[in-house]
Request: fold
Amino acid sequence: MKCVIIDDDKMSRDILEHFISKHSELELVKQFDNPVEAVSFLKLNKIDLIFLDVEMPQMTGMEFIACLADNHPKVIFTTSHTQFAIEAFKYNVSGYLVKPVKFDQFSLAMKKVLRENISVQSVDFKDNVVFIKEGKTIVKMDRSDIKLIECVGDYVTLFSKDRSYVVHATMKSMESRFSNIEYIRVHRSFIIRLDAIEDIEDDTIAFGDKLVPIGKTYKKDVYKRLNIM
Reply:
Protein backbone atom coordinates (compact mmCIF):
# COMPACT_ATOMS: atom_id res chain seq x y z
CA MET A 1 0.00 0.00 0.00
CA LYS A 2 1.34 3.40 -0.98
CA CYS A 3 1.08 5.86 1.89
CA VAL A 4 1.87 9.44 2.91
CA ILE A 5 2.37 11.13 6.27
CA ILE A 6 0.81 14.54 6.94
CA ASP A 7 1.97 16.06 10.22
CA ASP A 8 3.51 19.39 11.17
CA ASP A 9 5.67 17.73 13.86
CA LYS A 10 8.94 16.29 12.51
CA MET A 11 9.50 13.87 15.38
CA SER A 12 6.05 12.34 14.83
CA ARG A 13 6.77 11.98 11.11
CA ASP A 14 10.11 10.29 11.83
CA ILE A 15 8.50 7.78 14.21
CA LEU A 16 5.84 6.87 11.66
CA GLU A 17 8.45 6.59 8.89
CA HIS A 18 10.43 4.14 11.06
CA PHE A 19 7.35 2.02 11.78
CA ILE A 20 6.31 2.02 8.11
CA SER A 21 9.77 0.75 7.12
CA LYS A 22 9.17 -2.33 9.30
CA HIS A 23 6.05 -3.31 7.36
CA SER A 24 6.79 -4.76 3.92
CA GLU A 25 3.17 -4.16 2.84
CA LEU A 26 3.69 -0.41 3.09
CA GLU A 27 5.57 2.00 0.84
CA LEU A 28 6.10 5.55 2.09
CA VAL A 29 5.79 7.84 -0.93
CA LYS A 30 6.08 11.26 0.68
CA GLN A 31 5.90 13.26 3.92
CA PHE A 32 4.17 16.61 4.36
CA ASP A 33 4.38 19.19 7.13
CA ASN A 34 1.80 21.30 5.31
CA PRO A 35 -1.65 19.75 4.62
CA VAL A 36 -2.41 22.32 1.89
CA GLU A 37 0.47 20.98 -0.20
CA ALA A 38 -0.73 17.43 0.44
CA VAL A 39 -4.17 18.18 -1.04
CA SER A 40 -2.58 19.15 -4.36
CA PHE A 41 -0.33 16.08 -4.34
CA LEU A 42 -3.22 13.67 -3.72
CA LYS A 43 -5.16 15.07 -6.66
CA LEU A 44 -2.35 13.98 -8.99
CA ASN A 45 -1.09 10.79 -7.36
CA LYS A 46 -2.71 7.49 -6.37
CA ILE A 47 -2.25 6.84 -2.65
CA ASP A 48 -3.82 4.03 -0.62
CA LEU A 49 -3.34 5.27 2.94
CA ILE A 50 -2.84 8.59 4.75
CA PHE A 51 -1.40 9.00 8.25
CA LEU A 52 -3.04 12.30 9.18
CA ASP A 53 -2.44 14.55 12.18
CA VAL A 54 -5.66 15.93 13.65
CA GLU A 55 -4.25 19.25 14.91
CA MET A 56 -2.28 21.36 12.44
CA PRO A 57 -2.04 25.15 12.20
CA GLN A 58 -3.00 25.48 8.53
CA MET A 59 -5.86 22.97 8.53
CA THR A 60 -7.26 20.35 10.92
CA GLY A 61 -7.40 16.71 9.94
CA MET A 62 -11.18 16.90 9.69
CA GLU A 63 -10.99 19.94 7.41
CA PHE A 64 -8.40 18.11 5.31
CA ILE A 65 -10.70 15.12 4.74
CA ALA A 66 -13.48 17.48 3.70
CA CYS A 67 -11.21 18.74 0.89
CA LEU A 68 -10.73 15.28 -0.57
CA ALA A 69 -12.84 13.47 -3.14
CA ASP A 70 -15.45 10.95 -1.96
CA ASN A 71 -13.24 8.02 -2.99
CA HIS A 72 -10.26 9.29 -1.00
CA PRO A 73 -7.57 6.95 0.41
CA LYS A 74 -7.97 5.23 3.77
CA VAL A 75 -7.09 7.49 6.70
CA ILE A 76 -5.46 6.80 10.07
CA PHE A 77 -5.64 9.80 12.39
CA THR A 78 -2.73 10.61 14.71
CA THR A 79 -3.10 13.01 17.65
CA SER A 80 -1.80 13.80 21.13
CA HIS A 81 -5.32 13.95 22.54
CA THR A 82 -8.02 11.29 22.93
CA GLN A 83 -10.97 13.69 23.01
CA PHE A 84 -11.09 13.80 19.19
CA ALA A 85 -11.76 10.05 18.86
CA ILE A 86 -15.57 10.18 18.68
CA GLU A 87 -15.57 13.07 16.21
CA ALA A 88 -12.81 11.43 14.14
CA PHE A 89 -14.74 8.23 13.56
CA LYS A 90 -17.66 10.22 12.18
CA TYR A 91 -15.38 10.61 9.16
CA ASN A 92 -15.20 6.81 8.73
CA VAL A 93 -11.45 6.68 9.30
CA SER A 94 -9.66 3.33 9.45
CA GLY A 95 -7.74 3.99 12.66
CA TYR A 96 -6.87 6.41 15.47
CA LEU A 97 -3.37 6.51 16.98
CA VAL A 98 -2.52 8.51 20.11
CA LYS A 99 0.93 10.13 20.25
CA PRO A 100 3.55 9.18 21.10
CA VAL A 101 2.63 6.29 18.81
CA LYS A 102 3.82 2.88 19.99
CA PHE A 103 4.81 0.15 17.55
CA ASP A 104 2.27 -2.37 18.88
CA GLN A 105 -0.54 0.19 18.44
CA PHE A 106 0.69 0.96 14.93
CA SER A 107 0.82 -2.73 14.02
CA LEU A 108 -2.73 -3.37 15.29
CA ALA A 109 -4.03 -0.47 13.22
CA MET A 110 -2.22 -1.82 10.16
CA LYS A 111 -3.74 -5.30 10.58
CA LYS A 112 -7.19 -3.72 10.45
CA VAL A 113 -6.36 -1.67 7.35
CA LEU A 114 -4.83 -4.64 5.54
CA ARG A 115 -7.90 -6.76 6.28
CA GLU A 116 -10.06 -4.03 4.78
CA ASN A 117 -7.79 -3.88 1.75
CA ILE A 118 -8.27 -7.56 0.78
CA SER A 119 -11.89 -6.92 -0.17
CA VAL A 120 -12.49 -8.10 -3.71
CA GLN A 121 -14.91 -6.82 -6.30
CA SER A 122 -16.99 -9.72 -7.57
CA VAL A 123 -17.53 -13.45 -7.77
CA ASP A 124 -18.89 -15.47 -10.68
CA PHE A 125 -19.76 -19.15 -11.10
CA LYS A 126 -19.59 -21.56 -14.02
CA ASP A 127 -20.54 -25.18 -13.42
CA ASN A 128 -18.21 -26.35 -10.63
CA VAL A 129 -15.73 -23.51 -11.01
CA VAL A 130 -15.69 -20.21 -9.10
CA PHE A 131 -14.07 -17.06 -10.56
CA ILE A 132 -13.18 -14.35 -8.05
CA LYS A 133 -12.04 -10.92 -9.19
CA GLU A 134 -9.40 -9.64 -6.80
CA GLY A 135 -8.27 -6.18 -7.91
CA LYS A 136 -7.00 -6.68 -11.47
CA THR A 137 -6.54 -10.42 -11.04
CA ILE A 138 -9.17 -13.12 -11.62
CA VAL A 139 -8.69 -16.14 -9.39
CA LYS A 140 -10.06 -19.50 -10.57
CA MET A 141 -10.84 -22.22 -8.04
CA ASP A 142 -12.95 -25.35 -7.74
CA ARG A 143 -16.24 -24.74 -5.98
CA SER A 144 -15.46 -27.69 -3.69
CA ASP A 145 -12.42 -25.81 -2.35
CA ILE A 146 -14.73 -23.32 -0.66
CA LYS A 147 -15.34 -24.83 2.75
CA LEU A 148 -16.98 -22.02 4.73
CA ILE A 149 -19.02 -18.93 3.86
CA GLU A 150 -19.47 -16.12 6.37
CA CYS A 151 -21.69 -13.06 5.90
CA VAL A 152 -21.07 -9.73 7.66
CA GLY A 153 -23.28 -6.87 6.51
CA ASP A 154 -23.06 -6.49 2.73
CA TYR A 155 -19.89 -8.60 2.46
CA VAL A 156 -19.36 -12.35 2.33
CA THR A 157 -16.08 -14.10 3.10
CA LEU A 158 -15.34 -17.33 1.23
CA PHE A 159 -12.89 -19.57 3.12
CA SER A 160 -10.76 -22.28 1.60
CA LYS A 161 -8.31 -24.30 3.69
CA ASP A 162 -5.47 -21.93 2.85
CA ARG A 163 -6.94 -18.43 2.55
CA SER A 164 -10.05 -16.30 2.33
CA TYR A 165 -11.71 -14.00 -0.22
CA VAL A 166 -14.08 -11.15 0.58
CA VAL A 167 -16.84 -10.39 -1.93
CA HIS A 168 -19.62 -7.84 -2.08
CA ALA A 169 -22.69 -10.08 -1.93
CA THR A 170 -25.58 -11.25 0.25
CA MET A 171 -26.00 -14.49 2.11
CA LYS A 172 -29.19 -15.12 0.14
CA SER A 173 -27.28 -15.02 -3.17
CA MET A 174 -24.60 -17.35 -1.77
CA GLU A 175 -27.19 -19.82 -0.52
CA SER A 176 -28.70 -20.03 -4.00
CA ARG A 177 -25.25 -20.48 -5.59
CA PHE A 178 -24.02 -23.35 -3.43
CA SER A 179 -25.79 -26.70 -3.72
CA ASN A 180 -27.73 -27.74 -0.62
CA ILE A 181 -26.50 -31.28 -1.31
CA GLU A 182 -22.89 -30.34 -0.49
CA TYR A 183 -23.41 -27.29 1.73
CA ILE A 184 -25.61 -26.56 4.72
CA ARG A 185 -26.62 -23.31 6.34
CA VAL A 186 -25.96 -23.59 10.07
CA HIS A 187 -26.50 -19.98 11.14
CA ARG A 188 -27.91 -16.79 9.67
CA SER A 189 -24.29 -15.76 9.03
CA PHE A 190 -22.68 -19.10 8.11
CA ILE A 191 -22.86 -21.77 5.39
CA ILE A 192 -20.43 -24.68 5.64
CA ARG A 193 -19.49 -27.52 3.31
CA LEU A 194 -20.52 -30.83 4.86
CA ASP A 195 -17.12 -32.45 4.39
CA ALA A 196 -15.51 -29.55 6.29
CA ILE A 197 -17.34 -30.50 9.49
CA GLU A 198 -15.00 -32.57 11.65
CA ASP A 199 -16.48 -32.20 15.12
CA ILE A 200 -19.21 -30.33 16.95
CA GLU A 201 -19.14 -29.39 20.61
CA ASP A 202 -21.81 -27.39 22.44
CA ASP A 203 -23.54 -26.60 19.13
CA THR A 204 -20.31 -25.11 17.79
CA ILE A 205 -18.37 -26.29 14.74
CA ALA A 206 -14.60 -25.88 14.69
CA PHE A 207 -13.17 -24.78 11.35
CA GLY A 208 -9.45 -24.13 11.69
CA ASP A 209 -9.15 -21.37 14.28
CA LYS A 210 -12.74 -20.22 13.69
CA LEU A 211 -15.67 -21.30 15.85
CA VAL A 212 -18.91 -21.51 13.85
CA PRO A 213 -22.09 -21.43 15.95
CA ILE A 214 -25.15 -23.50 15.04
CA GLY A 215 -28.14 -21.17 15.28
CA LYS A 216 -31.29 -22.26 17.10
CA THR A 217 -33.34 -21.84 13.92
CA TYR A 218 -31.05 -24.20 11.98
CA LYS A 219 -30.16 -26.71 14.73
CA LYS A 220 -32.84 -29.31 13.97
CA ASP A 221 -32.08 -29.39 10.23
CA VAL A 222 -28.32 -29.49 10.80
CA TYR A 223 -28.40 -32.54 13.04
CA LYS A 224 -30.91 -34.24 10.74
CA ARG A 225 -28.60 -33.71 7.72
CA LEU A 226 -25.60 -35.05 9.63
CA ASN A 227 -27.43 -38.33 10.23
CA ILE A 228 -26.08 -38.66 13.76
CA MET A 229 -26.13 -42.21 15.15
Q: What stands out?
A: Residues 2-117 form a domain with the Rossmann fold fold (CATH 3.40.50.2300).
